[in-house]
Amino acid sequence: xxxxxxxxxVAVGAFLPLFIKNTLHASNNLSNWATSxxxxxxxxxxxxxxxxxxxxxxKYGAKPWLMRASWGxxxxxxxxxFVQNVTQLIILKMAQxxxxxxxxxxxxxxxxxxxxxxxxxxLGFVAQQAVFQQ
Length: 134
Prior knowledge:
Blueprint: H1 2-23, H2 28-60, H3 62-80, H4 86-96, H5 102-113, H6 119-133
Helix pairs in contact: 1-2, 1-6, 2-3, 2-4, 3-4, 3-5, 5-6
């Protein structure tokens, strides 16, 4: 999980503007707008849907929702390798917002399964990975 979060944060985040401009052949202005939308839309959609996902996780348990977030994110990243234009990329980044909550659910599961004396250290480790994700 550590490696995937690091790759997600560094490889995707740092090179997204270059990918949009050079591979998708977007103008400078479109590249700036598309990068802004690709970074902000998943968080905006995720913020709107978080209470809904939280209620479902409370009702059915956190592990199925951890799998939903993990698989959903993996599928979205896979589909991003096939985009042909900026619009497709923005749509996929919007869809990525449907699968937010990976770090939050991971923290909830850590609290449930780790012995009490190790919870602080374990949550710190999960929080450290959230920093890489930003």
